[in-house]
Amino acid sequence: MSIDPAFQALLDDTRSRYDNSTSRRERHIALINQGQLAKANPTSLVEARLARIRGGRGASGSSVERGLERVLGRNDLMSVRFLEDGWQKSRAVARIQIGRSGGIGGGYGTGFLVGPSLLLTNHHVLPSAEVAAISKAEFNYQLHLDGRLQSSLVLELDPTSFYLSDRDLDYALVAVENNPALTSFGWIPLIEEQGKLLVGEWVNIIQHPNGEPKQLAIRENQVVDELERHLHYLTDTAPGSSGSPVFNDQWEVVALHRSGVPATDARGDIVAIDGQPWLPFMGEHRIKWIANEGVRVSQLVAHIRGRAAPGSPWESGVDTMFSATPPPQPQPPRLQAPSTAPAGGAARGFDPQGTVSGEALPGGTVTWTLPLQVSVRLAWPAGEGPQAATPANAALPQPAAPATEPAASAELRACLQELAEARQRPYYDAEADAAAIEAYYQPINGGAEPAALAAALGALLTTTHQRPVSYAPARHLYPWIDLHPDLRLRSIYSGQDFDPETIIREDFRIEAARSLRLQEFMAREQHPSEEQRALEEALLEAALPYNCEHVVPQSWFERRQPMRGDLHHLFTCEMRCNSFRGNCPYISFADPLEAVMDQCGRREGRDFEPMRGRGAVARAVLYFLLRYPGQVGDKPGEMPLERVPTLLAWHREDPPDLYEQHRNAAIQARQGNRNPLIDRPDWADRIAFS
Q: Which DSSP string corresponds to 492-554?
């Protein structure tokens, strides 16, 4: 599978620019490490930077160095106000759901509002008005204080009203559909003036990496070079998300993040994070990135103004973007007066909308909780900082638990508690499981003739399936059963890994939305038939899918239980791969180059070959054929008997590993039965599957 040419061109362009500036960048890094920021930047820029920070008061000569020491990189920039300002700016940042047109597009990016109804992102995210027209911007896709996903606002993009882009500067400016709620998110002005940033400063990025809920990286990227059009900044964490705003410590946008610089081996091939050669199906998140690159905002502003000359189709929109004043934004709550605090407790502020909360702690410290996932790097001078002021055994007050809690919240807490306990329990006890396997198959004669062996195993799987579970992957699958040895979840088809807590919270959010819509349907229809209700539920699941794959598609068994909730054929799978596979049966393509390819696998017509996990899905399907004989297989569009040799070949090529052994033992503990293809792999060729 070859790298997408557009993506390869993006990486080549970024890498070339990074390599060509090596000597200057290394000089900058040396000066930064020596604490000589003034020498790493032009004097005029340093003076402009200090003047901007101080509100117009500049510096000169030796006072420049002292000014930098006093003003830049100090902990007084990380005050409560810093977090408040960052929270306000974050409201304008959206997750972009990229449409797919003619094989171009798909996936996610980040964008942010820069004017009334105008959103900025990368050209390579929205490379044309056609792709923009089938894409969406999702605002407020982030976690609530209690860990649940907040209600988001999904809006269509409107390139017919405004679309301006440039491939070289890698930006796209596009209109968002007119919606009264959009003004509540405000926008982030683009500032052309100099003095917003120096080489050696840390920058902050608000983003939706890999399409995940909104995240904020504070001072995790240090600027090491400023080129004519671009900034290079280094980080030891994940790369930025395409189209993210890059901020200075005053929350002014200094760059539009566009790409990372990938690590390469001696042959020039891209390297994955595990040191192995990177392949496209692994996804961008598996690349080993060594630096980030963003387009300087001053260059973007100059280019946008130049394109919006009088008489151009963009004149009115750009004029409005630069002249309009952002509407007032909601303010984080202020703390209650200490006199109103309960005796012996901390004073707490509360925002009725539940967006931000604060606590007043002993000693005058204030702690804010933001509805964002935040990564922070602080550089405290020696002898200063919280470690120096707080005794090691000092306990901080905890927020009071709510008096009552919805059932869904209690259930979510139980799932997260099970996930937390996963870190304390053995992932797989081989000795105990060997004894369990021996006891489980004691009634089975492994040397029986094929049909008899199949019948005996089918009866065993049925009689021991004593605790069928409902289809609820966030409750039954993600907290323990489907975890890999590193206690993370991985998409069965693409191998992309996920934080299990994020997936669990996402599925609970989806379930709540689905439940609400089903209630609306019931109220509207009054007395729907069972067929109408089943159809509505199927439509809702298609519109609001879980991050879960039935390797035997639900449509093949009409969504009936216990098949629907049988954990042996349920696997984590991002929605994109779930949709790409659909309900196609598995196959091994003779010539994969003829098939439509994706990071999830290969598809042609009604056939699908997964990119990864073929052994695991084969054993899951073979289990299903034993457990539910005659239920699936021979209808048009399903998997007839002649496909079984393909499954057996995958089973032999990709034998069970520690992950599947863990799954099998955990599923027996949950629903009672096991998958014999995992426990007794050699039986596969002796069973008459039907």
A: TTT--EE-HHHHHHHHHHHHHHHHHHHHHHHHHHSS--HHHHHHHHHHHHHHS--SEEESS-G
Distance CA 189, CA 187 (A): 6
Whose CA is closest to 165, among 134, 119, 115? 119
Residue in this structure with the two tokens 């349907």, named with its chain if needed = 521
- CB of 458 within 8 A of CB of 677? no
The per-residue pLDDT for range 400-432, each reduced to its tens digit, is: 333 344 556 788 999 999 999 999 999 999 999
Over residues 120-156, the pLDDT tens digits come to 999 999 999 999 999 999 999 887 776 667 788 999 9
Strand order in the sheet with 596-598: 596-598, 601-604, 607-610
> What's the pTM value of the predicted model, to 2 decimals?
0.54
CA angle 650/653/655 to nearest 5° reads: 95
Beta-carbon neighbour count of residue 254 at 10 Å? 23
- Residue 478's CB is within 10 A of a number of other CB atoms, namely 28
CA of residue 510 relative to chain centroid, distance: 16
The residues, ordered by sequence, that sit 6+ positions from 54 with a Cβ below 8 Å of its Cβ are 67, 71
- CB-based burial label for 57 (10 Å; 0-12, 13-18, 19+): exposed
| DSSP tag of 181 | G
- What is the β-pairing status of strands 93-97 and 136-139? antiparallel
CA distance 472 to 457: 27
For the record, the structure tokens of 337 come out as 């007066």
Q: Calculate the CA 558 to chain-centre distance.
A: 31
Six-digit token string for 81:
């106000």
* Residue 243, φ and ψ in degrees, nearest 5: 90, 5
**Structural domains in the chain?**
35-72 (no CATH), 94-185 (2.40.10.10), 409-498+553-686 (no CATH)
Rounded to 5 degrees, φ, ψ at 416 are -70, -30
